[in-house]
Structures are given as C-alpha cells and as structure tokens.
Amino acid sequence: MPGSTPLAYFLHSAGPASRPVLVLGWALAALCVGVCMIVGALLLYAMLHRRGASGARMTESGGGRAVLTGTLISTVLLLAALIYMLWVLAVVASPSREPALTINVTAYDWWWKADYGADSPEHFTTANEIHIPVGEPVQVNLKSADVIHAFWVPALAGKTQTIPGQVNRQWIQADHPGVYRGQCTQYCGAQHAHMAFEVIAESQQDYEKWYDAQARPAAPSASADATRGQHLFMEHCAGCHTVRGSDAAGVQAPDLTHLLSRRLIAAGALENTPDNVMKWIAHAQEIKPQSLMPDIKLSPNDGRDLAAYLATLN
Which CATH number describes the domain made up of 224-310? Predict the structure, then answer.
C-alpha cells in the first residue's frame, strides 16, 4: 500500500491479480493456526489426564477410532486446501480482458531491466522502475540474464520465477495510483536482498507523459563542465551503460538515458540524489559488495564534471 510500512505491502491487495492470492494466504494461515491450536489442546489434555495408578490404557478399538478420525479430518482439510489453491491459480492465470501493454522484464545480478515498446519505433529501456497505467491489466514477460530470480510485487500479484533460457509470463494491475515495491524472492547471490524495484501506477495521462519523455534521447550537453563529464562517462562507463543520443551503448548495466527521472538507484539501495549518485560511483563495492559495478576513483575536478553531465540525464 503506497506510503505504508514495508509490512503493509504483504498484508494488502491493490489489484485483481493479488486479491485472490492474499485471501488464500490468510486462509492457509488460519488453517495452520487452527491445526497448531488443536494439537496443542490435545497435548495439554494428555498431560492433564495421565493414566491412573491402575495403569488403565485406552482400548485398542478406541485408539483406532481416534486415529481414523484424525486421519479423515486431516485428509479433508488438505484436499480442500489443494482444491482452493488450484482454483486461485486458475483465477489469476490470465486477466479478464486483453492486456493494455506488454513489458519485457529481464533480471540481472542484481537489478532489473524493463523494456518498453520492443516492436515500436519508440522502444526504450529503463531500470528498477516499472510504470503502468491505473486500472489496466499489464502483461509482464520475465527473463533472466544469469541465474534464477523471482519477480514479486506482493500488492499487485504473486511470485513468478525468471529462469535463464525461458520466458515466464505474469500480469499485474493496480486499482489505485501509487508506488508499489517489488523484490526478488529467489536467493540469487550476495546482493539478493538488495535487488528491489518499484511499480509506479499512474493515470493514463501521466503514464503517456512519462512514456513520451522516456522515449526521447538524452539532451546534448550544454556546458563545458558537462561536455568534459560526458567524455569521462565515455571513458569509464560507456562499456556497460547506455545513454541514448550518445555513443554510449553498453548492455550489461542499466540504461542511464533518463537517470534523474528515477526515485531510487542501485536497485533500491539508495535514494536518487546527486550526492548518492556520486557516492555509488566511488564506493559501489562498499554499498553492494560483489556487484558488477566497480569503484571508480575520480579527482575532485573530474567528479564535478561527471556530476555535471549526469545532471543532464533527466
């Protein structure tokens, strides 16, 4: 739920793909709690009603009936839970109408690439931030570039794994505008816990405005500092990062064409502020050890110039 504590993301539903899953989760939790309470009550009863001095024991027929009754009750409950889970799986398998758009999402160690308009001239990619229009079903095609990850936005849908060499599909829909946190939930290495993303649901008008802005290439550098910073970027960063409208065309790291438009950087590890961007560049291995982003040591003047260039990527 937007603006709520992290726990609220797991306890509330914000779309039709997550609502049946949430109810199923509560039902299974209630079943588990009920079973634990019954077992605890039987254990307490047995402790308070020990055999007398005569050593009288439960008759064989009485014991058999108790075991049979317990087995039948367990079987019925487990079968009912299985049927309910299969029904929920069928309900959330596909949306009630054709998806409004398709987004190709690729998981990397340890970040997410979102690919929009793959078959259109306005094709672009962004990172760790997925924008969708409110009230519209959206198909998400999930791939992995390295190991098995899992895509999960608990307020919008259940978990779906991303598997190398395979495309898995999921759909999400947000009933209300807001920012919904997502997370990789399949252990994938040292920075698994720092592999978050955000789904930003907005009105159709705001979504189209964002889409049009993202589809444009980066603006040319307008100052001498930014021009020098662009040369530094080409020297240190262009092998991995892309900036559309420039010669930087790396594919192993996030597209930075509109870096300043994002709320977070480093897959949710830091807020997107000028200071944090430079901190990430200089101390990436301290912030996310074993990530593919190296520490880049710059002189104060070079750092100022690079910061001036990155400030143009809005």
Answer: 2.60.40.420
